[in-house]
Fold this protein.
Amino acid sequence: MTTLTAPRTLPTGGRVTFPRVLRSEWIKLTSLRSTAWSLALIVVLGLGISLLMASTFGLAEAEMDGASTQQVALTVATIGFSFGQLIAAVLGALSLGGEYSTGMVRSTFAAVPRRLPVLWAKAVVLFLAVTVVGALTGFGSWAATYGILDGQGVSSPLDGPLALALLGGAAYLGLVAVFALGIAAAVRNSAGSISIALGILLVLPTIVALLSMSIDWMVDVTPYLLSSAGSAMSSIPAELPAGAEAPRGADLAPGIAAAVVAGWAALSLAIGAVVLRRRDV
Amino acid sequence: MIEAEGLTKRYGSKTAVDNIRFTVQPGKVTGFLGPNGAGKSTTMRMIVGLDRPTSGRVTVEGADYRDLRAPLHEVGVLLDAKGVHTGRTARKHLLALAATHRIPTKRVDEVIGLAGLESVASKRVGGFSLGMGQRLGIAAALLGDPGVVILDEPVNGLDPEGVRWMRLLLRRLASEGRTVLLSSHLMTEMAQTADHLIVLGRGRVLADAPVDEVITRANGSAVRVRSPHLDRLASVLASPEIAVTALGDGAAQVSGSTPERIGEAAAAAGVVLHELTPLSGSLEDAYLTLTTDEVEYRSDLEEVSR
């Protein structure tokens, strides 16, 4: 048997600091196979669906419907994000929900008894990892489909507005992961938090659409939904004819949409933080 | 040192820990002994700040656990063996915990060796046996070389060799001057490992004393005597605290006295003794005596067999 220790000669610097918690959460995120699978799936699905769309769609006709070639190229490059957002939500929910379901959370909070640094660190790590993977997917899809689109005469160079929209889509995925993390902190289990997050992404828009048939002001709510704001965040706003006003329920401007999405993530994280501090684990 | 004062935990209308007070001293192995539901685990979770006391306070080295700046260097804790993410390897689990305190990788490998986990360190924890899970829990608890070690049911699932290893480890930790608190419902294990016992039942402290004292106090002390003159011996010993029960075959059981006093009294009165045997009870008897009324989930079967 190995000797236990030298008699208690500890580095006095061994305190808990935020950068150290960040490092710990990075190790946790990257040491699970489910993380690798999820992130790979975002890339593969994103590229695959973009390629499929580029090669099978009557894109030249879409352009005639008034969309610019740039918008066509953007739509093709970001089409996979509608699936990517679901994977990002699952990943975010699992990063804390998985700790509750396995009991790991007790080890985590015994090491960091203030708890909140863990939540913030998880948010940072998730946002960075998912956003980077989202950017790879977005730019990768643009590059992969460029040749096919060029053949149909609807390719677009990677100029400022297009790059910004792709980055917006990537950041949206990152924020969705953070949003789901906050829910996991509030409901403290994997299945429940995944259900709630996917419900807000997928089911809530349908409910609002149905309600807006009978309740007039619901139309104005639509652009502020997480998923609507998310798609607005990764769009290139169309130029409106001079003097014309945007129709009710139209997409928000990308900057405002980004703020709305960040607001959803911040709200969910805040609720999660309150529960995290108060509840026994 | 761990100190609890008026510590209480209620879950709704159920009181898990009821206004308890105790001190766990360094340099000794202290055992939390009690039936399931006695409040052992709840108390341990409150010590490390995972559960918040309903009232009262518990401190580690004089501070609330939640206020510790470097908790892993102060307190090592093994709660349940499966407090680990099953999808991660043992080594990554330890590395992630170590990172929060910037504990070097060298120390991670050290505790892996200490716990005898070298061969499985790069395997995912999901496939671990309960015994390996316990060893990983111990490795995690010792990561920060803490002065206080808290282990909930550490021998659960260990094979005999593992139990022996655990016992030696705990003894050594205590001999290094650390505060060692472990819980168990296994009385024989406690008798061999612990120096001091805190017996819990239904959230209350039933006994808080050195192991020997707990046994003696709970059993009373009984002595078996054999003598051709039992009647005379009985009258010599007669006193309100002493009971003499004839066992037949010229033997009797005397309770409420000690072999020394019985022998001296017999010699003074000239009574011949053929046997004078102290009947020391086991910790198990003591435990059962103490907790008879405190077991929360007693089965009907047990009632019948009594």
Observations:
- Chain A touches chain B through 39 residues (CB under 8 Å).
- The radius of gyration of chain A is 22 Å.
- Chain A is about 75% helix and 0% strand.
- Residues 114 and 277 of chain A are 8 Å apart (CA to CA).
